[in-house]
Amino acid sequence: MYTFLCKFVSNVIKYIFMKNRFLLSIFFLVFISCSHTENTSDKVKNKQKQTNKFAIVIHGGAGTILKKNMSVEKEQKYKAKLKEAILVGYNILKNGGTSLDAVEKTINVMEDSPLFNAGKGAVFTHDETNEMDASIMTGNDLNAGAVAGVTNVKNPISLARKVMTNSNHVLLYGSGASEFAKEQGLTIVDPSYFYTDKRFKSLQKIKEKEKSVLDHDEKSAFYDPDIKNSKYGTVGCVALDKNGNITAGTSTGGMTNKRWHRIGDSPIIGAGTYANNATCGISSTGWGEYFIRGVVAHDISAQIEYKGISLKDAAKDVIQNKLTNLGGTGGVIGLDKKGNMVFEFNTAGMYRASVNDKGEVVIKIYKQ
Ligand code: ASP
For residue 167, how far is its CA from the centre of ligand 1 (angstroms)? Predict the structure, then answer.
């Protein structure tokens, strides 16, 4: 039976081949030209992809940053570091690197500087320790990694990246996060590495102020503008690479004088960080509790997705209306898939910088 079937099939093929040689030739010609066209159009597509725009934006925290309180020297220091950081990411993107690399390496520069409240310059907790949070998200696959309450990892954003790429989890905290960092071969430092006089003095000042306000009225300490506005200074970066992929990342020491292992918005995906190639990438900075309650970063993306509005309008509504009405303070930076940038904040200032694909660097600090 089997032999009979084989013979039958091979005879049918022979018959078709003999009778329709002409038709078969035509078929092959059409097939080859179609696949050629497909290859060509693929090449065009790839070429288009590779010539796509790229862009990068960063922040170094929002808060009561007033020109009258800033010396020329201090301003120059901040500007120089912001420029150094953003150019690291810019060069990665310009050379065809990924937005993921650009975001991590840019944030590393700010984490290694004592100027910002992240890594080396992290603020102090009430117990005079430093507990850092960070997160990163890639917009092509909605993958994310985050860490909270780490005390001995030099670059928390690099650990967040490892959580995203080398674990089955999204968010690790405390000693478990440190253990994972060691396994991944990241640089572990003694917690004393994070000591800076400036941050330690800020803690003492806030504690004194808090004590004097608390002596008067317990509740008002929480709302005292001096206390609440002096606590900020996170770092963040959003990048769009030549393949149209958006990555967002945020790294922080949290808020000065935080207690009970408080975790802010920075490691919370959707609050402190969000990225989706179809909409935008966002990194937040400000009073974290409000950013968590307002799911700020995701809300901006959702408004673009559901309402079809621009990144600019979405960020404006979320920060100037929704966050402000809740009583929250701070801001966001963001990029959409076309490389449009946004810097929206309701505080007096936000350290921020951008570079476009032509290499033009813009650095700003105050509200303009
Ligand atoms: N959002 C951070 C937090 O609440 C603080 C900041 O952005 O400065 O932990």
Answer: 26
Rounded Cα distance, 193 and 195, in Å: 6
CA 92 to chain centre: 16
143-150/171-173 β-pairing: parallel
Q: Are 333 and 59 in contact (CB under 8 A)?
A: yes
Could you tell me if the CB of 285 is within 6 A of ligand 1? yes
| Each residue's pLDDT expressed in tens, for the chain with a length of 368 residues | 444 444 554 554 455 544 555 444 444 333 334 344 444 344 334 444 554 789 999 999 998 888 888 899 999 999 999 999 999 999 999 999 999 999 999 999 999 999 999 999 999 999 999 999 999 999 999 999 999 999 999 999 999 999 999 999 999 999 999 999 999 999 999 999 999 999 999 999 999 988 887 665 554 444 444 545 555 679 999 999 999 999 999 999 999 999 999 999 999 999 999 999 999 999 999 999 999 999 999 999 999 999 999 999 999 999 999 999 999 999 999 999 999 999 999 999 999 999 976 788 999 999 97
Distances (CA, A) of 190 to 153, 195, 196: 9, 10, 14
Distance 287 CA to ligand 1 centre (A): 5
Whether this prediction's pTM lies above 0.90 is answered by no
Residue 14, C-beta contacts closer than 8 angstroms, at least 6 positions apart: none
